[in-house]
Amino acid sequence: APLNVSVVRLPFWEDNTCESSVVTLGFLVCCQEAANNYAAKVTDVLNKIQDAVKDIPMAERPLVFQSYNGTSISTMHNGIHEAVYAAGGKTPWDVGYSNGSVSIEEVNLNMNPDYIGLDQYYGFLETWDINDKEGSFKKMVDQLKGTDLKYIQAINQSQPYKDGDVFGFNQGTYMGPASYVTIAYMFNKIYEDNKSITLKFDVDKLFADYLASYHPEFKVDDFVVSGINVQYYNLQQLEAATA
User: Which of 168, 174, 207 is nearest to 189 (CA)?
Assistant: First the structure.
């Protein structure tokens, strides 16, 4: 303000406003066509999901315990719950829980979620060296192993863990412009056994298109280590890496 510079605050992850923020940004920097094209891709994914689940009451949708560390229920406006809703699921909030810490006994005995999603929070993303994929993947695994409430140990008695219905995401994939790729992945996972749902996304294709469109300096192979796509991975891969 002292410099008479206008400041526009654009929300890029909370309240599902990312696409509208990108459109605003595109208008400000004279790249409106590219921004509109991006918004159309996101809207296409989100609308297809909402159309696919429109006849499923909230009470009958899969319960997804999406958590930072397996022992906490997060508040709204942080990107986690918003991703679950966008993927057609319901959160612990919808079955009577409020934000805050929760014991894993409570999760196992009472909440009994259908799926568990574990998040890795890095703090400021610029401290993560994405140019060294081997080192970056090791850092991801080390954080999983080194957290005081170790992610896997926090949920390894739960039914979703026993059934293999646990998935992990890192912070950069459910916040910001790439979040629609994660939402499509989550939708595929939580509705994979629902015979009435015929929609299934080619997530690898979405991710490849995202890179080609917005980060052409990267290739899909830059995000793969030992056959694991480090943008999304399953429970078996997570266990193997942290053994």
Answer: 168
Q: Mind listing the pLDDT tens digit for each residue in 153-164? A: 777 788 888 888
- pLDDT band at residue 18 under the 50/70/90 scheme: confident
| Termini Cα distance of the chain | 52
Burial class (CB in 10 A: 0-12, 13-18, 19+), 73: buried
Query: Where would I find the H helices in the chain?
Result: 18-28, 32-53, 80-86, 104-106, 133-146, 151-155, 159-163, 171-174, 179-190, 203-214, 235-242
235-242 helix and 133-146 helix, angle to the nearest 10 degrees:
90
